[in-house]
Design a protein that fits this description.
The chain has 273 residues and is of the alpha+beta class. Helices cover 23% and strands 32% of the residues. The chain has a nine-stranded antiparallel sheet. The chain is globular and about 45 Å long.
Length: 273
């Protein structure tokens, strides 16, 4: 999270501050193009826009997981006061469509307030690509997102490249009408599944795993592709997926349930830490 915030703050401000030569003759000022930043990392793909001094956002995706995260950063005077594990609405314009999300990883630092929103629906990326403004419930003014369609197309390319690195057939994944989806939004990990050694040592982290899902939605195979840095959390991820994993199966090009590959990010967190 800190790495992304620093990158966003460092990247957005210089790009938006490029001076333009004045026109030869008086004319109405042209609207500057929307500035988007691309952020490709070892375990995610993201596109971001806005001004962190006021309010900016990023669409943040784990390749192979159709449910995105949305990260807001900006002034506490603009972003609403929200706490971890609370719910809020993300509102898109001009469609006025709204998406429920769960707040996580709230932080206040020198750059401003950071809010990470989880469990957005799988349809959010397509609707976001057609939007021109995004705001949170409680924000008086939204963040302009002109050019979001091109930004999301670039993000899609990042996703395909990363899928190949992780051993997923990107063409087969893209050909699905709908990837396998998580009906619970929680990926089955509960406190009872937390490894005792990691819990005692207050170890937290994210594990990214590649899973084979059959036509009934059951996880039949699991492999860690990005480690949390804690072996017991890595091991517990696949053990939990094979024991409890249940997706709504993917829908193939023929409109029928089908076996597929799915990438999932298991977020191991201890409340209060």
């Amino acid at each position: 999270m800190k790495r992304w915030v620093a990158g966003m703050v460092g990247a957005l401000l210089p790009a938006s501050a490029i001076a333009q030569a004045p026109p030869a003759a008086p004319a109405p000022a042209a609207t500057p193009p929307q500035v988007w930043q691309l952020d490709w990392n070892d375990n995610y793909c993201a596109v971001s826009t806005g001004d962190p001094a006021t309010a900016g956002l990023a669409v943040w995706m784990t390749p192979g997981d159709p449910s995105p995260d949305l990260i807001f950063i900006g002034s506490p005077k603009i972003l609403p006061p929200l706490d971890d594990f609370t719910k809020t609405l993300v509102i898109l314009a001009p469609s006025r469509g709204s998406f429920s999300a769960t707040v996580s990883d709230v932080a206040d630092n020198a750059q401003g307030r950071v809010l990470r929103l989880l469990r957005l629906k799988e349809s959010f990326p397509a609707d976001f690509a057609a939007s021109s403004e995004v705001r949170l419930e409680g924000m008086k003014k939204g963040i302009v997102t002109v050019g979001s369609d091109k930004a999301m197309a670039a993000l899609r390319q990042c996703v395909d490249d990363k899928l190949k690195e992780w051993g997923v057939d990107a063409k087969a994944y893209d050909a699905l009408r709908m990837p396998a989806t998580d009906p619970t939004g929680r990926l089955w990990n509960m406190l009872s599944d937390y490894p005792e050694d990691a819990l005692a040592a207050h170890k937290q982290g994210d594990v990214i795993a590649r899973m084979d899902v059959d036509g009934r939605g059951r996880v039949t195979n699991c492999a860690v592709v990005v480690s949390s840095g804690t072996k017991s959390l890595d091991n517990a991820t696949c053990a939990t997926a094979l024991k409890k994993g249940k997706f709504t199966p993917a829908i193939g090009a023929d409109g029928k349930p089908t076996a597929s590959q799915r990438v999932a990010r298991m977020r191991w967190r201890i409340r209060g830490y």
